[in-house]
Amino acid sequence: MRNRAATGLDTAIVDVWKREVGQLSPRNFALRLAAPEDLVKRFEIFRKLEKHRGCVNTISFNHDGNVLVSGSDDTRIILWDWQTGNVKLSFQSGHHNNVFQAKFMPYTDDQCIVTSAADGRIRCAHILPHGKVETKLLARHSGPTHMLAIEPGSPHIFYSCGGDGLVQRIDLRTGAAVVLFTCEALNYRSFSSVVYLNAIAIDPRNSNLFAVAGSDEYARLFDLRNFKFGSSDIYGQPVDFFCPSHLVGDHGVSITGLAFSDQSELLVSYVDECIYLFSKSMGLGPDLPFISTPSNQSDASVEDEPQAYKGHQNSKTVKGVGFFGPKCEYVVSGSDCGRIFIWKKKGGKLVNVMEGDRRVVNCIESHPHTAVLASSGIESDIKLWTPTATEKRELPINIHKFYGSGSSDDNDESDDEYFYDDESGDGSEDGYEMVERFIADQMDEDDSISVEEDSNDDDMASDEMDGGEEEDEEEDFFDDTADDSNNDDIGVSEDDDEVEEGSDEDYSVSVAEDQKDDDGRGGMASDEVVGTVDKEEHH
């Protein structure tokens, strides 16, 4: 009898036995079980978290992984016990517009959350005893602020980047925001003097190194040790640039997402292009001696080229990108087609595609310790994914015929297909239908993505959102001009904090305004909001 090749599931079963008899420690068992390909192919919806009343733009786990924080177009921050689906805490962020980022500060017992938003403000929320939350304005940008980056292991230091090209370093101990630099555009980009920044990430192995990216083709790496505070002669000078050779000099590309792996590799997500993984050795250096065009890059060595991850579509919104697995074995991203894509980091093989939103998936967050994913997008819910499906989700053998890289160097138009409904009719109808059948066959009826209309639509229509009028979901996110309303007072107006009539909320607010920072470039801004949490939501 011929022996059957061992599978990942077979190995996992053996590991269970080894753990039970003491041959494998619980920690090593958890690490081994976290990311076998068998498990990655068994993801299904575990739970939907439904409380927000707008697009959910940010999700993040705390250090222990038992609490998830989310922020939305409704300007609320919600803390979830994701395993039970209960809301632990819900409060108004104090922002005037869509919340784009919310993160726990480490080593604060989950009592400190920093946020950023479309209004350009950077705020900090302190959870106080007796069910109260104090939010304070720390800094501001003159354009939307999509991303924050927390210094690894620090309960005090984090960074912000914004549409004004500014990068700021904020210290919660002093409440001061220091402008590090303005990210200047290269000379050949004459339409703007600064780079509209969408993303910032810090190297987890060296917190002195951080990368920023936005409205041009380069991810720029900076070293904090080069910054001599009080001297501006070297501000804004990167120590390295990263860009695929065929995109150097391409005026039509830009970047929405960055992430560092535990091995200090840099993951970069391009608009209308691929996701690329760079090692440190692939940098172009601190000086770009000339701006070459894509056609001049055809002689680049294959060894020098970054790994590409293909198939998703990224053009409508600012999407993040990230890693999954205890050793960052997988790359994960959302897509304009409403699906979640998972690739093997090594080799770029697409291993799973899951339907996560009726329109667009913007956020994918990996649990810090186990095989759990959280996703969110244009819909108002959050989906938790666990590898509990009894059947593996196998991609069709010829799946590569039905997705393309979106790369400018792909000459065969027939390969330039995506997993999305191309309203222009350019896509392959047969390929799209095949993928739709694949998704439909694999989805359990109980986990159907079709979402019924919210029964509270009437209530929602009468509720006034603190963030004001909701932004167009497909707004050009490289518009350097901020809404005039975002550049008014730093303080929160009393009108924004009125209790909503007809709601179940008891939300009392006091506002204290001190002297405002007139230069609009950061610094301490002492606007405070103190309020009680929602009664029915606090557990």
UniProtKB/TrEMBL annotation:
GO terms for cellular component: Cul4-RING E3 ubiquitin ligase complex; cytoplasm. Keywords: Repeat, WD repeat. Residues 409-433, 442-507 have a biased composition (Acidic residues). The keyword Repeat applies. InterPro entries: DCAF8, WD40/YVTN_repeat-like_dom_sf, WD40_repeat_dom_sf, WD40_rpt. Residues 402-539 are annotated as: Disordered. It holds the Pfam family WD40. WD repeats lie at residues 49-90. PANTHER family: DDB1- AND CUL4-ASSOCIATED FACTOR 8 (PTHR15574:SF21), WD REPEAT DOMAIN-CONTAINING FAMILY (PTHR15574). This is DDB1-and CUL4-associated factor 8. It comes from Cuscuta epithymum.
